[in-house]
Structures are given as C-alpha cells and as structure tokens.
Fold these 3 entries.
Entry 1:
Amino acid sequence: MSELIIDFIGRWSYFGIALLMALENIFPPIPSELIMPFAGYVAARGDLNIAGVVVAGVLGSLAGTLPWYWLGRSIGRERLARWVGARGRWFTISPEELERAERWFLRRGGWALLAGRLVPAVRSVISMPAGVAAMPLPSMLAWSACGTLLWTGMLAGLGFALESRYERIAGFVDKLSMAVVILLVVSYAWRVIRFRPGPR
C-alpha cells in the first residue's frame, strides 16, 4: 500500500493529497495516518513543498467533512433519535446515551470538534453531530480547520523528518494500519453483540 500511495501522490501532486484526504474523511479506505506521512516523505525527497503538502491535506480533509455535516443537518435530532430507538443495536448506542452525547457536544461545541479531529476513526464523522446540532457551517469549518491543521501538520512533519528512513519502516506502518482497521471492526462487532438497550 505504501508504494501505491507514494506513486499516486508523486503523479497527482497536491491535488492527489487533497483527493485522498477528502476520500479518507468521507469513507476511510486509506487512513490519514498513511497519507500525510507519505506526503511528507515525498516533500522530503524535494518533489513537493512541505507547506503545500499540509495546505492540501487540510483543504482535502475539510472538503471531506462536508458530506457528513450536511447528512447530520438533513437527518436532524428527532429523526436520529427515532433511528437510534429503532435500530440502537447497529448504532451501538441507546437513546439515553445519544441524549447524553448531545448534551456533551452542546456544552463543548467547537472544542469537541477540534479534539475529535485529532482522534482516528472519530475524526471522519465528528462533523455529523455538528450538523445534527445545527452548528453554523463557518463555525464548523473553523474549528475543524484548527484540529485538522494540527493533525495533518504533525503527520506530514513526521514523514518529512524521517526522510529516507521512512522506506525502512513503511512495511511496519502498513501492518500497523491493517491492525488498526481489524481492531475497529472487531470492536464494533463486539459492541453490537454486547449491546443492551437502555430502560424504556
């Protein structure tokens, strides 16, 4: 996978980084934990500018948050609550847990978005509760941009700093990313099996 990402970025440059990061946010086929370090590695080879790599990563990531945000806006709180009430097992959340999560998000607001953008898996869908809560779009983008800049900058900087050594650990990173995906799938399956609806 590492060579495929590096070749894609090498061919499509900054647009390729933005496209991969947008897709990673809409439906994570390739985690940003691979995309941005490899983009930083390509910059370290002198093929791209590291600042441009970070900007492309941020813009692509923000573009990827919009479908989740608008999905949350279109669903709304009442419809989401009905879905959770009817299909809570597949959401692995009860109506009571949904209500507590909503109260927490409303209290934390932008800080919840910023922090969520730094957490793998969560970062892809954190804009959906912002949409459900009807957070203004400019605010959602501003808070998301802050968290995304920290995340993409850190990952790109890691790849840039490692330079040629990154090739030696690419295989390890591939295995680690696969392990993360497997862990997420197993964790979700376990939550579905162990799910118990709250009191009615």
Entry 2:
Amino acid sequence: MIAVLRRGQHALESRPARATLWYVTGHTLQKGLDFLFMPVFALLLTPEEYGAVALFLTWMTIFHSTITLRLDRAVGRARYDYDDRRFRQFLSAIATLGTLTALAALGGLALLPGETLAALFRIERRLVLLAAGAAAGLFVIEIVLEVWLYAYRYRLYTVVSLGLAVLRIALSLALIAMLPGRLPDVDGALARALGITLVSGGGGLALGAGLLWRGRRPLDRAAWRYALAYSVPLIPHLLAGLLLSQFDRVLIGQYAGLGAAGVYSFAYQIGSVVFVLWAGANRAWVPWFFEQMARAEREGDSNACTAIHAAVRTRAGQYTLLFAMATAILIVVGPPLARLVTPPEYREGLAIIPVVMAGCFFMLPHTFYVNLEYYAKRTGTISLGTILAAAANITLNVALIPRYGYPAAAWTTVLGYLLLFLFHAAFVRFRLKQANLFPFPLLLATGLALAALAAILQGVAG
C-alpha cells in the first residue's frame, strides 16, 4: 500500500501531471471569463451587433485556418526533427511565411468592393478586414504557445493565454464605452472587433519580433517545404471542423437575420459549457490513453494486451458515466440559471441550451475513437470523417433553417456529432480491428438518452 501511495505521489509530482493541471485550469478559467462577460456584452450590444460579432469571430477562426496555412501545426513535430539552433531558424521562417500569406490575403480582400464582401461574408467590409488581421496576429501567437507547450513551460503558457484573454475583454469594453456615438459609423460590433484585433495583432507583433530575433532566418525554403508538407494536408480537417461547429451562425445570419444569429450564439455559448468540461478532461485522458497503447505494444503478449485493453474499456466506461451525469445535471439546471443573467431580448434562445449540451456530449465518444486513430497515425481518416459530418450538417442546415429557424441548427449539430461518432466507431471496429476497446453500446445509449432529455426540456420550454 505504501508503495502504491508513493507511486501515486510521484505521478502527481511529475512534470506532465503538473502541466496537465495548469492547462486544464487555465483553459477552464479562460472559458469562464467568456461566460462571465457574455451577459455584459449582451447588455451592451443589440442582438444584431451581437450576431455580427459572432460572425466576425467565426470568420476570424476560418481565416486563421486558411490564409496562414496553419503552419503553426508543424511546430510540435519539428521540435523532434531539429536541434535547438535549427528549430529557432525554423520558427522564424514559418512565422514569416504564414504572416506574408495572411497579409497577401488581407490585401486581396481590401481590393474587393464592400458590397461584394458583405455578400460573401454576411458582415460589413471593416469587420471582414479586421477578422483577417486578427487571424494573422493569432497565428504568430499560436506558434509561440506551441513552442511553450512542447517545452513544458506550462506556467508561462497559461499566464500569457489568460493575460491575452483579459486584455481582449478589457479593451473591447473600453472601446464599446468610448467609440459608438462619438465616431461616425462606429457601432458596438465594430468596437468589440477592434478590441480583439488590436490585442491579437499587438501580441503577434511582439512575439513575432522575438521569433525573428532568435531565429534570424526568415527566408528558409527548406523550412517552408517541411511546414507546408505537414500542415497543408490538415487544412481540410480543420475547415470541416469549423464548418461543423460554427458555420451554422453564418447560415442563420443569412436565412434568419443577424438578430437570430445573435440569440442563437448567446444560447450556444452557454450550452458549450459541456464542451469546456470535455476539453479539460480530454487533456487529462489522452496522455494516459497513449501510455496504455504504448504499453500494449511493448508487452506483445496477448494476455497482457487483453488486460490493458480491458482496463482502457473500464476507464472509458467510468469516464462516460461521470461525464453523462454531469451533462444531464447541466441540461436540467442550465436554462433556469441562465435565465437569471440573460437579457429579455435573448431569452427566447434559452430553450435550445439543452440541445446544444446534448450535442457537445457526443464530443466525448467521438474523441475516444479519434484518439486511437491519432495514435495509429490514420489522420487521413480523421479528415474524411470530419468532412462527411460537416457536409451532412450544412446540407441539413440549408434545408431546415429557412423553415424552422435557428432551433433547427441546434439539432443538426447533435446529428453532425452523432454521425462523426458513428463513422469513427465503425472505422476503428472494422479497419483497426479494435471492436472491444471502448464500450460502444454504453456510449451510444448515454448520448441518445441525453438527446431525448434535451428534446423533452425543449418541448416543455416551448
């Protein structure tokens, strides 16, 4: 018993364990800030302005995954392929290339007429350009955060991430208080977007200058080829994931108006508290799961592998039940609690909060199987599944939102994540031959039960 306690104490004191604790805490605090100030921004902005900001953030994320070529995704792998000096040169090179492509895209957008940009992006021209500028700054910030992540500089990573989040909120609030009504054609949405862009752009400039100074090799074609070969194939997966999770706001804005998009975005942010809990828990699950898979490979003995897989299945079942219980509680108590802080013009959207929570729950069973595919280096399958789910989600949204409004988007999100879960479960079962690694009947039953609970509560609220 003493030996077990000592091993447990040693595990808690290990660097990966401390890093996980910091990352989970930091992620939760950062999202908690968003939830805390969400009612404040809802009070300061009209539903139309809130919807415009939601679309601005969506396009900022899409631009981040396209115009920068997401070269930051190559940082982790390059860390193990290069020595320290060459790695610093690599960082300065990809920061330069990604920034140049982003600025070129920004210049191209600036040349388009405002009417064209509004028709393409469903927000005004200035918000589109600010979204592209913020994406460029965010790209450089992500490079530095990735470096700190793999170097286990978890305290610095957490402090800087939280600091940037606080600055975005504080500057946005200050600009909303100062600019609208004092400058012509400046409303709350533009002030909020300007606050986000200034912090992201300023942070990117400061951190990017450090990368260039330490690397001093901004034009390195070998580094560019390495990063492009690694990152560009991931873009379809990233884009499809964004379409699956966020493009419904764009379609709601197009078919139902910015006011409906604002109401939906407000409710979705509250419902995504389940996603926040999952994101924190997943960071703790993945290292343990990879360790078990590596142990099974090293053991080689079939009995040992069977025992390890059984332990994974047991832990996955326990994890699922605990997470399902937490989700069920949030589905029941979430809307009444949200009503206490929700402005009257947003309250009609509270009925979809349980539906959003039920959809977010399916991230858990879906990522069980995706994590195995990552371990098995089957990333192409991950992209394929995300693309198929996003296509189904968009098709359903186009068909249903004009007829049923934004509540349809919440249910198509549930279906999209359910299809994603079923696709990866089938691939793992029939192609990777791991039929019993995860408790599929339990995963499916809990997810469907939560969706049924959400439907009942939505019906009662309606």
Entry 3:
Amino acid sequence: MIRERLSPNHTTRPDGMPIDMLVLHYTGMASARGALDRLCDPEAQVSSHYLVEEDGTIWRLVDENRRAHHAGISFWRGHTGLNDRSVGIEIVNPGHEHGYRDVPALQMAAVCDLSLEILSRHPIPSRNVVAHSDIAPNRKEDPGEKFDWEGLAANGVGLWPVGIPDLGTGGAVRDAAGLADVRRALGDIGYDVPPHGALDPALATVLRAFQRHWRPEAVTGQADSGTLARILAVARLCAA
C-alpha cells in the first residue's frame, strides 16, 4: 500500500524533458519520521518522489511528473542537473554517519516493486537506474554497499554483470595507459571522470562509487583486477 504525504518542495520539469532516470538514495537520518518530516519541510527545500520505510511502507511525496529536489549537483552520461529528468526514491536507513545497517528484505521488496511500477510508466533504460553516489561521487555514498543491487537487477531493475568471477584485490592498475582504459570504461558507464594520468583522488572517488554499486565486497578506491573486470563487464552491458 502506498500512503501519501505531499511535500511542498517540487517544481515544474523543463518542457519536453524525458523522465529517463531512477535515482536511489538512503535517508541518512536517525529515524524514518525525521526523514519524512524533513522531505516535507518547506524550509529544507529537499524532497523525493517516494520514501520507503524499513517495514516496506511506501510514502508518495511528489507526483512523478513534477521535479523533486533529491539529486543536487549531479552528472550521468553527459547530463547534469538530474532532478530535471529523474524519479527519486529515498530508502530509510541511518547511513554511514549514523550506524549504517543492512537493508531489510521487506524494504528491498518494496523498493523493487515500486521501481518496477515506475519503470512501467517511463522509458528508463537499465543503465540509468543509479545510486546517488553514482551521480555525485564526490558528495554522496548512498544507498551504499549494503544495498542489494544484484537482487534488484535479477528482478528487472538496473544492471548487474552476471558470471564475472571474483578476481580479488590484487593486480591493481597503476600505469598511465591502464588507468586511461579504466577512465574510459567508467565514462562509458556514465560517470564524470576527469582526464588525468595517475590514480588521483578524483579517480579513486569514482572507483569507490562504482564499487559501492557493482563491487560492494571491496570498496577501496583501487583499480584492482576484480574491480577492473566488473567495470569492463558493466561497460559492455551499458553499450548493449
């Protein structure tokens, strides 16, 4: 069941703008009630289209045809200002700063069902089902490495590179030519990757965002062999 508590924090989408992205967040607050109140507070000026509680309760806050204020400064596949073109789901979880915890099965099931409903209404390709950390890696970590992206993709929401063996954390790419290939593949997936030669802090930040989504067992910021295999596999899926 979807409950409704309308937030005042929304605006008109630009004329002709497609709704072609789904962005998943965690609330990063101590309680569901506190998060719901903040998303509906006109002084906070933040919102999402939906909020999903840990028991699976779903709140509709903003009509999907309106622009909610959830993504902030953001980039994906050449586009910026992603509030214009996305639907945002906030997932109740205290987050990394307040005791980050596993996502309950009921909550994951509700997120999956809601996402499938959203995808049925809008032409959102699988490569555009993303984490807040994917589109703003220098600012955000959510929904984080404990979120079940693999299970979500198995049910038709987003992408997951099936059958890629875990090659471990050895064999990190460190030469300029190899890192250029890493940057290119991350850019093909959709990330904003500044062009440099070395493993600089900006690239390590993007690598951590990728790992939180597609290699949660090793969130290191290193271009190790296992991470590189996943990057190349996801890039192939995005190109398909």
